[in-house]
Amino acid sequence: MSAKLFEPLTIRGVTLPNRVVIPPMCMYCAEDGHATAFHRTHYGKFAFGGAGLVFVEATGVTRAGRITNGCLGIYDEDHIDSLAPIAQQIGEMGAKSCLQLAHAGRKASTQRAWQGNGPLTQENIDAGDERWTVIAPSAVPFSEGWEMPRAMTRADMDEVIEAFVIGAERALAAGFDMVEIHMAHGYLLQSFLTPLANQRTDEYGGSLENRIRFPLEVALAVRAALPEDVPLFARISATDWIEGGWEPEDSVVLARLLKRAGVDVVDCSSGGNMLHGATNASLQRGPAYQAHFAKMLREEVEVMTQAVGLIRTPELAEQLLQDGTADLIAIGRQALFDPFWAHHAAERLGVTNWDAWPPQYGWWLSKWKRGLASMDEAPLD
Ligand SMILES: Cc1cc2nc3c(=O)[nH]c(=O)nc-3n(C[C@H](O)[C@H](O)[C@H](O)COP(=O)(O)O)c2cc1C
């Protein structure tokens, strides 16, 4: 038996042991950008659970670029110290690590997910949260009642580029194997891309080429700062799912330019410019509902892609690799439910490799699974 899901993949100088990826997922419990004991356990356990690549959540390259008061940051040199044990723990468990570098733009200064994901309320502020001025390509708020952003000047843009570059350098200093630039979900870089948020009249707004210019400048600068053997991912929203917004064919143009700029993998998500929970006619969520975008970019641009979004079963993950949809498969919420998803998937696909398990577990579980030991038997020590 063999399964593509458990074949290694080499990207530049890094070999992932398999194609199972834990995508970036904000945990909203950092302290002034610093990772805590929760983060170390949280991320370490996915590597323990057999994933080949573990992403660390959206990490603000500036303090104002955090989504919430509880988001991770990499805007101070001393953030390196709290991130380093996470990268180390992931590596020691045999997986590779990727830090997602992010700037939340006009969706910054908001509530943690469990507080509602909306603009901060007086109650949140009374409870200790800080509110700050947000920046965006244009002075257009995300939605009614959200912070009115300040339209960015060229100086702001230079600062953001430098912050992404410094963030990438700090991520490597913390021991991460690679970084991803967050260009999706309505955050700063995606809000340059989409005409729904970008109403600039200079060379960064208007035509598709102009709207792509700033995110591309960020990608070029980050690539230039990374050693040749370090992979670079970019997460994009392949479509806004909104008429008059960013369209899948725009993503083809973007992916082509990103590839030329030295981005190795396009991580294909979608949406982010609609209020949380809102929906419209063109968006039908179902198993692997975004994966066809990954396939389109892989075929048309010949770039490696990562598929994500409602991929829950090993069979579906394997099928997406077999049919050439993507090179990597990200398992988000299902892995929160089952952090050992990758090991369990290998068993379901008939390719269990006990050497990939932590030996502390594997020596016993392998005997039990091969019928050489029984759970009813009393273990001796
Ligand atoms: C709790 C939570 C936090 C998330 N945070 C991020 C994030 O930091 N960056 C990002 O690009 N996507 C984020 N996402 C989106 C996920 O990476 C993923 O694309 C999405 O959950 C769909 O995959 P799934 O259906 O396998 O969960 C988050 C999703 C969840 C559930």
Automatic annotation (TrEMBL):
Molecular function GO terms recorded: FMN binding; NADP binding; NADPH dehydrogenase activity
Keywords, comma-separated and alphabetical: Flavoprotein, FMN, NADP, Oxidoreductase
Coiled coil: none
Pfam entry (one): Oxidored_FMN
Highest taxon of the lineage: Bacteria
Keyword Glycoprotein: no
Domain NADH:flavin oxidoreductase/NADH oxidase N-terminal: 4-348
Gene3D superfamilies membership: Aldolase class I
Names of required cofactors: FMN
InterPro entries: Aldolase_TIM, OxRdtase_FMN_N, YqjM-like
Annotated protein name in UniProt: 2,4-dienoyl-CoA reductase
Native organism: Pseudooceanicola nitratireducens
Lineage summary: Bacteria, Pseudomonadati, Pseudomonadota, Alphaproteobacteria, Rhodobacterales
